[in-house]
Structure formats: C-alpha cells, structure tokens
C-alpha cells in the first residue's frame, strides 16, 4: 500500500469516571493541560506525523469536543478588535489543525467496537489509532516510527511500554520476539489485563496503534471478551497468528514520556512537566517547585 498514511481515529466515547465529579458535565478529553485541552495534544501528535484527516468516535456527552475544533466567530472578532493577535492565533489553531470528523459510537461496546465504527471513513488503507487518554510528550514521538514499521512489514503495529510487572494487570500485555534490525519486535501473542503471575512479559500495550484495514474484517466477527466488550486486543491476537495480506502484529517499544490523562496523578505530572518546559511559565514554576522541596528553616 506504500503511500503516506492519511487518516487517524481517536476514540473518545469513554465516560471519564476516574475524574468525577470534574467530568460530570465536562468530557475528560477537555480537561486542560496548562492552557489547551488534553485532546488537542493528541490531534497535534497525529498532525506532526503527517496525518491530515482525523475521525473522533464520540458519545452523547462529547459535544464540547466538536465545539472546540470548530470556529467561534464571536470570540475571534472580539480578540481581533482588541488587537490580541496571540490569543487569536491560539484560538484559531485548533480549528485549522486537520480535517476533523465526528461519528458517535452508539452502543458502548468497547474499544474494538469504536474502531470498527471508523470502517466506512477509513476505507481500505492503513490508519492510526490514538487513544484520547494517552498524551505522548512532543519530544518523544513514537507514531512516525510505528508508521515506518507498518510500511515495512505490511501488518499492524502497537506501541509497547515496559512497566513494573506488578502493574501489568492494568494493561494489554504482549509476548514478543526480536524482529527487523532490533528497532521493533514481532508480537506472537496478546493478553488483555493478565494477572501478574500469568503475564508473558512486562511489555504493556499503550494507546497508539497503526493498523492494517484487515483489522475491520476481524473485528466484525470478534465476540465480546473481557468486560462484555469487543476488545481490540482480541482482534490483534487473531491477526498475530493469521497469514496472508495484513497479517502479523509488530511492536515498537516506547522509552519516552507518556502520561495517562485519565489518571489523576499522571494528569498532574503532565501539567507540571509541560508547564515547567515553557519559556513563559517554566522559570517561575520551577523556582516555586524548588521552594516546596527545600525544608523550611
């Protein structure tokens, strides 16, 4: 298929219960990370990788995401009249990042079902899936590397992260063998949230995927799995042991900074990390953080 990957799918239909009551009326993806909502960082990551078409799989409570990526003439006119061109550019940035589309998931049947809802939009070409909860630091990108592996292998690619073995039960877990020139691995098996003593490794599947369109055919016949949901992990397990075009699953081990913005502590780490590196906020913030670490006399 050897052409530039054009499309990304971002499932954002989850309820965000870990952040209640903050997410009672505000989608978790719209929680601010400094001065941009978390979801904008995810879209920007896809755009940096060369993707210009983004489909969000939404739910009933996600209308604010559509509004955020839309134009707001009144605000723009007000800022322009004030001569506040810096804020005007920031407001317009979200609506000009990419061609962004929205479709509702309907029934909450899991990540695999959400990805399947993208079939008519994606068509017969490889595509990326970025989970809206996972924020990858912009200096530690992994998506381009995954796209390169997909083009080389013709299969599907997952991002893997080494985690404490005691924490593997919170993730999909991969059984792997070396492949390529050592810059990626071949996935022989995937297990969704295994017990620590049953996990084949400490390599966790995190929220970045580059998928061959054959995954749609597999998802169509994948029965509900763990939690009564259609698991993307189960479909990838089937592809890992399949043969023919689009078969095979590979992994890129990510060693950079990744934040789970659905987890309170990880969300706070994202805010402080990004703010501390900004020229306008970093010096004062870092000075304040240092003062907190210095024992009072």
From TrEMBL:
Name-wise, this protein is UTP--glucose-1-phosphate uridylyltransferase
Listed under GO biological process in this entry are: UDP-alpha-D-glucose metabolic process
Q: Which organism is it from?
A: Arthrobacter cavernae
Does this entry carry the keyword Translocase?
Answer: no
- Which family does the record assign? Belongs to the UDPGP type 2 family.
The Nucleotidyl transferase domain sits at: 7-274
Name of the gene: galU
The UniProt entry, under NCBIfam families, shows:
galU
The protein's matches in Pfam families, at most eight in alphabetical order, are given as: NTP_transferase
The enzyme's main class, written as a single word, is transferase
What keywords tag this UniProt record?
Nucleotidyltransferase, Transferase
What are the EC numbers? 2.7.7.9
The protein's annotated catalytic reaction(s) are: alpha-D-glucose 1-phosphate + UTP + H(+) = UDP-alpha-D-glucose + diphosphate
Q: Name one GO molecular function term.
A: UTP:glucose-1-phosphate uridylyltransferase activity
